[in-house]
Design goal:
Oligomer: single chain
Low-confidence stretches: 1-62
Shape: globular
Order of helices and strands: EEHHHHHEHHHHEEHHHHHEHHHHHH
Radius of gyration: 22 Å
Largest sheet: 2 strands, antiparallel
Mean pLDDT: 83
Strand order of the largest sheet: 1-2
Number of strands: 6
Strand content: under 5%
Number of helices: 20
C-alpha cells in the first residue's frame, strides 16, 4: 500500500510528486524546480549516484570504473566522489563532533566513579566506542555516518537512571546493552526498514529539515548566541562575548567560502576560527576556574597523551540486573529514544546525501540499522551510555562525503585521539558552531517539495520540524510527525493513504507518551 499520495492542487487536479514524477508530469507550473534538473536527479538516484551534492565541493561526477581495491570496496567512483573528498569529509565530521571526547566523560563522571582515573578511563572508553561505532558504519554498512556516545542519552543515563532512580551504573549499562540487542533483532527481521518505508516522503523531508533546525540550535547555543531565559525559555546571549564573535567570524567566513564554492569550506571555517581563538587569546575553551571558560591553555604536556586502558569499566555491565521487572521501563526508554533518534537521524542524513531511492527507501537499510544496534551493544560492554549515529555527520556530507570511507576516517581519528587527545582540545565549541548553523540552513532545502497546501501533509511536516529543536530531541520530532500524520489522515477520511505499519507505530508512540513517563 502506498505510504503517501500525490499532492492535489487547489483546483482538484493531481499534482505530481517531484521525487517520483516524470518530466512531463512536472509541467504543471506548480513547482519551481526545473524539469531537467529533477529528471537528472532521478537518473542519478537510480544509478546509485549523488543527486543533491554538498555545495562545498562534493558534486556528483560521472561514474567511472573503480581505480583500485579501496575504490571498489567503498564504491567511491560510482558515488561520484574521490578519495581526497572522502578524507576531507571525514576530518570535517571528526572536528565537528570531537567535543564528545571531553563532554561525555564529564557527564558520565557524575554517575560513574572508579577512582582517581575515572575521567581518563571514560575518555578512553568514549574514543574506543566512537572509533568502533564509526568503523562498523564505514566498513560494514559503508555509509558516511559517524557514531559515538550520544548526547542526551548520556545525560539520561547519568542523571535520571543512576542518580535520580538510584540504579547502579553497571545495571544501567546492562539496560543499554539490552536495548542494543533489540535494535539488532528488529533490524535483522526488517522491522526498522519497514518503518522507514512506511514514513511518507513529506515526513522524510521534514525530518531532514528538523535535524537542520536542531543542528542550528546546537550551534547557536554552543556560540552563546542563544541562551536560556526563565521568562521566555530562550533569549539572545551576549554578542560581545568571545564565543559569540568567534562564532560570527566563522559563520561569515564559512558562508562566503560556500558561496564561492571553495573546496573544504566548512573545514577551513573550523580551522580558521580555531586559529583566531588561539591567536587572540579568546576565552572560549573549557577548563577555567569554577567552570568558567578560559583562553587556550596550550599544550602544557605536549600533544601526545598516553592512553589509559579502561579496565575498571570494560565488561562491568549487569545484564541480569537490568532484566529485573523494575527496570523494564528504563530499558524501554533507552530503546524508544535511541530507536527513533537514530532512525530519524539516519533517514534524514540519507535523504540529504541522496541515498533514498525514488520510493524513499534506503539501500542496505538492514545493515545500516544493525550497525547502530551493534555500536550500542559494544559501547555498553566497554562502559559508556548508548552509542548512536551523530547528526554532525551532516558536516561531512556537505563536504562531499558519500561513502563508508568518510566514516572510516572518522573512526581512525577517534582511535588516534587515544594518543593525541590534547590536540583535539585545540578546537573550541565556538569554532564548530558556525558549521552546525550553516549545515542546518542547507538542510532546509528539501521542504520546498512538501505540499504545504494540503494540511494532511504540511501540518505533520511542520510538527516534525518544530518539535525537534524545541524539545531538544529528534525522537520527539519524528514521533509528533508520525502521530499527527496518521491522526489527520484518519479523521479527514483519507485513512487509506497511510500504510498499516505506520498506524501501529503511531499507536505505540501515543501509548508511550500517555502511559510511560520518560
Amino acid at each position: 500500500m502506498s505510504t503517501h499520495d500525490p499532492s492535489e492542487g487547489g483546483d482538484g487536479r493531481s499534482v505530481a510528486d517531484p521525487h517520483t514524477a516524470t518530466p512531463e508530469q512536472l509541467d504543471t507550473g506548480t513547482h519551481d524546480t526545473a524539469r531537467a534538473e529533477l529528471a537528472a536527479q532521478q537518473a542519478h538516484h537510480r544509478a546509485g549516484m549523488i543527486h543533491e551534492p554538498g555545495p562545498a565541493g562534493g558534486g556528483a561526477a560521472v561514474a567511472t570504473e573503480p581505480r583500485n581495491a579501496m575504490d571498489r570496496f567503498f564504491g567511491i567512483s560510482s558515488s561520484g566522489s574521490s578519495v581526497p573528498i572522502e578524507l576531507r569529509a571525514g576530518l570535517t565530521t571528526f572536528l565537528t563532533m570531537s567535543y564528545i571526547i571531553f563532554v561525555n566523560p564529564s557527564v558520565l563522571g557524575a554517575a560513574i566513579d572508579v577512582g582517581p582515573t575515572t575521567f581518563v578511563q571514560l575518555l578512553s572508553v568514549t574514543c574506543i566506542a566512537a572509533m568502533a561505532g564509526s568503523l562498523f558504519m564505514g566498513l560494514i554498512a559503508r555509509y558516511p555516518f559517524a557514531q559515538a556516545p550520544g548526547m542526551g542519552l548520556n545525560a539520561f543515563f547519568a542523571f535520571t537512571v543512576v542518580l535520580g532512580m538510584g540504579v547502579e551504573w553497571q545495571t544501567a549499562l546492562g539496560a543499554v546493552f539490552i536495548s542494543g540487542v533489540l535494535f539488532v533483532v528488529l533490524s535483522v527481521v526488517g522491522a526498522r526498514k519497514a518503518i522507514v518505508q512506511a514514513i511518507p516522503m513529506s515526513l522524510k523531508l521534514a525530518i531532514t529539515a528538523g535535524i537542520g533546525c536542531f543542528l542550528a540550535l546546537l550551534g547557536l547555543r554552543s556560540a552563546g548566541i542563544v541562551v536560556a531565559n526563565e521568562a521566555t525559555l530562550v533569549g539572545l546571549g551576549d554578542l560581545s562575548a568571545p564565543t559569540a564573535w568567534i562564532a560570527v567570524f566563522g559563520l561569515i567566513v564559512t558562508a562566503v567560502l560556500l558561496q564561492l564554492k571553495v573546496k573544504g569550506a566548512i573545514l577551513w571555517g573550523i580551522l580558521g576560527s580555531s586559529l583566531l581563538a588561539i591567536v587572540t587569546r579568546a576565552e572560549v575553551y573549557a577548563g577555567g576556574a569554577d567552570g568558567a571558560l578560559q583562553a587556550f591553555p596550550g599544550f602544557t604536556d605536549g600533544i601526545v597523551g598516553a592512553p589509559v586502558w579502561p579496565g575498571d569499566l570494560v565488561g562491568q555491565l549487569d545484564i541480569m540486573g537490568a532484566l529485573g521487572l523494575g527496570l523494564l521501563s528504563v530499558v524501554f526508554t533507552f530503546f524508544f529514544v535511541d530507536f527513533f533518534d537514530a532512525t530519524g537521524t539516519l533517514t534524514g542524513l540519507s535523504q540529504r546525501a541522496g541515498y533514498l531511492d525514488d520510493k524513499g527507501d534506503m539501500p542496505r537499510a538492514k545493515t545500516v540499522f544493525s550497525m547502530d544496534g551493534l555500536a550500542a551493544m559494544f559501547g555498553a560492554f566497554m562502559g559508556t551510555s548508548t552509542t548512536t549515529a551523530y547528526v554532525e555527520s551532516a558536516s561531512g556530507i556537505e563536504e562531499g562525503g558519500r561513502t563508508g570511507l568518510t566514516a572510516t576516517v572518522v573512526g581512525l581519528f577517534f582511535g588516534l585521539s587515544l594518543f593525541i587527545w590534547p590536540l583535539a582540545g585545540a578546537v573550541p565549541g565556538a569554532a564548530t558552531a558556525p558549521a552546525l548553523i550553516l549545515i542546518g540552513a542547507l538542510m532546509m532545502d528539501g521542504i520546498r517539495h512538501v505540499d504545504w497546501d494540503q494540511a494532511s501533509e504540511g501540518v505533520p511536516a511542520f510538527l516534525t520540524i518544530i518539535t525537534m529543536p524545541l524539545t531538544f530531541s529528534i525522537a520527539n520530532g519524528v514521533s509528533m510527525g508520525i502521530i499527527g500524520y496518521c491522526a489527520i489522515k484518519l479523521l479527514s477520511g483519507r485513512a487509506k493513504d497511510v500504510s498499516w505499519p505506520l498506524y501501529i507505530v503511531a499507536a505505540l508512540l501515543l501509548a508511550r507518551y500517555v502511559f510511560l513517563d520518560e
